[in-house]
Amino acid sequence: SPDDVTLSVGQTATFGETPVFLSRVDVAAREAFVVVVGRGPASVGDSAGALALDDGCALRLVEARDRSAVLARVCAQ
After folding, report:
1. Domain containing residue 53
2. How far apart are CA 75 and CA 26, in angstroms?
3. Would you give the DSSP letter of residue 12?
4. To the nearest whole number, what is the mean pLDDT of the chain?
5. Mean pLDDT of 3-16
6. Where do the DSSP E strands lie in the chain?
7. What is the structure's pLDDT at 1?
């Protein structure tokens, strides 16, 4: 979707008003490990599910790749 963002390990993107740094990706587990700026480490993916953002939306993992991840901000309609 147009809201999908591809991040490489070491990059930061802002979802809504929340900056998120991608620290590593586990492709086999479909899990992305991130650091939410101002909040600390978190993970998003198959076992962790979506990550709540400060604006009431959620960050979800679309695709886990080798050293990158496709993430999307999802808001309730």
Report:
1. 4-74
2. 25
3. E
4. 94
5. 94
6. 4-8, 12-15, 18-26, 31-36, 40-45, 51-52, 58-65, 68-74
7. 59
pLDDT tens digit sequence for 24-55: 999 999 999 999 999 999 999 999 999 999 88
Q: Which residues contact 18 (CB under 8 A, 6 or more apart)?
A: 36, 37, 53, 54, 55, 59
Residue that has been written with the tokens 């586990």 in this structure = 26
Q: Which residues contact 50 (CB under 8 A, 6 or more apart)?
A: 44, 58, 59, 60, 74
User: Is this model's pTM higher than 0.70 or not?
Assistant: yes
Q: Calculate the CA dihedral of residues 64, 59, 71, 25 and round it to 10 degrees.
A: -30
- Structural domain total, the chain: 1
